[in-house]
Design a protein that fits this description.
Layout: E1 5-11, E2 19-24, H1 33-43, E3 48-53, E4 58-62, E5 67-68, H2 72-82, E6 86-89, E7 92-99, E8 102-108, E9 116-119, H3 123-127, E10 138-145, E11 150-156, H4 170-180, E12 184-188, E13 192-198, E14 203-214
Parallel strand pairs: 2-3, 9-10, 11-12
Antiparallel strand pairs: 1-2, 1-14, 3-4, 4-5, 6-7, 7-8, 8-14, 10-11, 12-13, 13-14
Helix pairs in contact: 2-4
Pfam family, one: PhzC-PhzF
InterPro entries: Phenazine_PhzF-like
Protein name: PhzF family phenazine biosynthesis protein
Length: 224
């Protein structure tokens, strides 16, 4: 049986909302990639992380249908859970730090999978968007307060894995920050909060609140 934690990442100031994340702390129980992919599909979260070395922060990230070399909300959540200064991903090393209620990571925009960043004229337009047809990963956004760097966003993965809308997506926020070249305070989905800031030499820092939703002993188990 495989134990896993469930976190919510990029929560609102009151601790609500956030994007759920599954974390298998003992990745050695599912060493095979096909097993990990099947398990991530069973859990059905937008991403599931397998920890291969908790002290060094070595992790492996999966959506319900594919493996990712890097993803934002899994790294923010896992860094908080493991309390390590760095994560090691297939894309490269990800710096990590805790600052009060926020968990932060530092990554490069080129590590993020391709996204269509689609700007709208107002936050109300973004709020009213229907789920678009499958096939294109769309990050819909609009300024709520441009001088203050406040953004309204929604994310539509466009995949056939049962996730029509992603509540909070770190990689897309990194791409938007890199495009605009400024710090952002993003409200995404139903009410999640993502903070970002461009850093020197092509790096982007992204942070948010993390809540431990369920621990392994409180959860059902899936057999291998």
């Amino acid at each position: 049986m495989t134990d896993y934690d469930v976190l919510r990442v990029f929560c609102a100031p009151n601790g609500g909302y956030g994007n759920e994340l599954g974390v298998v702390r003992e990745g050695s129980v599912l060493p095979d990639r096909d097993e990990r992919q099947a398990f991530a599909g069973k859990l059905g979260f937008s991403e599931t992380v397998f920890v291969d070395d908790p002290e060094r922060g070595v992790i492996d990230i999966y959506t319900p249908t594919l493996r990712l070399p890097f993803a934002g909300h899994p790294c923010v959540g896992t860094a908080w859970l493991l309390d390590v200064p760095e994560l090691v991903t297939p894309a490269g090393p990800v710096g990590a730090r805790l600052d009060g209620e926020f968990s932060w990571i530092e990554a490069r925009a080129e590590w993020a999978p391709p996204r269509t960043l689609r700007q709208y004229a107002s936050a109300a337009e973004v709020d009213d968007l229907p789920v678009p047809p499958k096939g294109e990963w769309i990050y819909a956004w609009a300024w709520e307060d441009e001088p203050a760097g406040r953004v309204r966003a929604r994310a539509f993965p466009g995949r056939d894995d049962g996730i029509d809308e992603d509540e909070a997506t770190g990689a897309a926020a990194i791409l938007l920050t890199d495009l605009l070249g400024r710090a952002l305070n993003i409200t995404q989905g139903a009410g999640s909060q993502i903070l970002t800031a461009p850093q020197p030499y092509g790096w982007v820092e992204i942070g948010g609140r993390v809540v431990l939703e369920r621990e392994p002993e409180r959860q059902p188990h899936f057999t291998r």
